[in-house]
Amino acid sequence: MEIQINGEINVLPAVMENGKLKITQEGSNMILQTDYNLMVLYNAAGLVQVTIPGGYQNAVCGLCGDFNDEIDDDFRLPSGELTSKLEEFVEAWREYPEESNCVHICEENCDECDPMRASIFGREEACGQIILENGPFEACKDIVNATEYFTDCLIDMCDADGQSQVLCDSLQAYATACQAAGVKIKPWRTPTLCPFSCQQNSHYEVCTHTCEVSCAGITTSESCTINCFEGCECDEGYMFDGDKCVTMDQCGCVYNGRYMGVGTSVLSSDCLQSCTCANGGVVVCSANSCSDTQYCDLQNGERACYEKKGSCTLDVRANMMTFDKLHGQVPFTSIFDLASVCDLSLDTWFRLVAITQSCNTEGSFDLSSIHAYFQGVSIAITPGLEAWVHGKKVPLPAHLSDSLSVTIEEESIVLKNGDTLEVILNKSGELTINVSPELSGSMCGVCGNFNRKISDDLLRPDGKQSHNFHELIQSWRSSDFYKCSL
Ligand SMILES: [Ca+2]
Ligand SMILES: [Ca+2]
Questions:
Q1: In this predicted structure, what is the pLDDT of residue 218?
Q2: What's the CA-to-centroid distance between 65 and ligand 1, angstroms?
Q3: In which region does residue 312 sit, left (phi positive, over 0), alpha (psi from -120 to 50) or beta (all else)?
Q4: How crowded is residue 343: how many other Cβ atoms within 10 Å of its Cβ?
Q5: Predicted confidence band at 102 (pLDDT cuts at 50, 70, 90)?
Q6: Ligand 2 centroid from CA 160, angstroms
Q7: Packing angle, helices 146-159 and 164-180, rounded to 10
Q8: Which DSSP letter does residue 214 get?
Q9: pLDDT in tens, 149-191
């Protein structure tokens, strides 16, 4: 479980604005509460529960509806119009579609399940648990609508062809909803039905109060809800430090309402001060600064001194890292656009094409060559420390213009274009591409757009998100070199 506050990753619990806003971990859930009784519960099983006070009657919009006590007008679009189609309703409220990693699992007839399959998934070893007489959730059925959760469970199981994880998520969703409503449920997990694994020094309990017995809870226990939730409870003598169960003397510090484990540090927003949690809850602060080639920034949840230039790398084991630090594996045989300036008209435009080819029968990875194109010049370089310009092999070093050069430095061939681009390819086939900070956000290719965000690094040329790195590389294959996918 991870939370970000103003974009920065934090450990739970977090208390902000003099206690007006609190986020705690309770069992396997994260709970956000405000002093005006807004509560959001979220857990790894994908359950989100939003509770709002009565003052919001008729004053809200979104997927949860308008809260006007009328069920018939809840599929309202952002435009104010009503729809009867669930897909249209959900799609219309989608936020950040370009950053979303979601895929459509179900395209049509999503809420149908043929009766044969429904009867199988409805058995008491599966979704039937929810409505089972004298079952673990018996006490809850009149408080949280069991039939609704049972039906949802059947539909989800049908869509997922009976995957056990989907069953467990459905049962956990009901269990959590019951517990959030203050109902005491009986243990429902068994070694064969949705076993729950816990970290070292902790064990599963159906009713835990993890929030109070956490290291940070010592000082913030009044932030916890009164309910208990299922989840992992630290063994006797241990406390939860937001990440693992530790003995009490290993508990960290609470600094500016934020919990820090022993040995961890936080940087001030200008990176000029670094505060570290030492033993005994003592926070030690000292001056800090970024070097000339670095700048202070918050990236992917972490505040740090970051290099101004962008670096994309490919190592001898086919591991690639994009400018924004997404890691992935390159296929052993392929030709793809590694990095290019998206705007073809710029003077600084370039395009780098990578050719990988397996040279032996074991199928090991080999980077054959990099083809580099600039306005008016094309260059090929290989790990054999050889270079071709406009298709002609040239002796090295080669100075092609005021800014463009190919040189040998130690065991590497280095292609440089002013301050914009530096391509370093060494004898063993390791590749580093450095680009200037000015190109941030204007890059195309597998190395990503260099906008300092990892979340959109799987973007294909058509602007859609790939499902994985392999698909990303396929989408950027260099179609001027070959037609079919290799
Ligand atoms: Ca309504
Ligand atoms: Ca990016």
A1: 63
A2: 6
A3: beta
A4: 10
A5: low
A6: 31
A7: 160
A8: B
A9: 999 999 999 988 889 999 999 999 999 999 999 999 999 999 9
User: Per mean pLDDT, which range of 21-25, 122-126, 308-312 is the poorest?
Assistant: 21-25
pLDDT at 216: 76
Q: Which two tokens stand for residue 369?
A: 């060559």
In this predicted structure, the answer to whether residue 485 has a pLDDT above a threshold of 80 is no
Token code pair at residue 193:
């039905």
Instruction: Annotate 81-96 with three-state secondary structure.
Output: CECCCHHHHHHHCCCC
Q: Report yes or no: 213 and 221 within 8 Å, Cβ to Cβ.
A: no
Whole-angstrom distance, CA of residue 366 vs CA of residue 315: 10
The Cα 463–Cα 367 span in angstroms is: 27
From the CA of 375, how far away is ligand 1's center (Å)? Answer: 59
Cα 96 to averaged position of ligand 1 atoms, centre (Å): 25
Distance 315 CA to ligand 2 centre (A): 20
Domain ranges of the chain: 11-92, 265-307, 310-475
Residue 359: what pLDDT? 75
| Phi, psi angles (nearest 5°) of residue 119 | -70, -30
The type of residue at 140 is C
Give residue 154 CA to ligand 1 midpoint distance, Å.
26
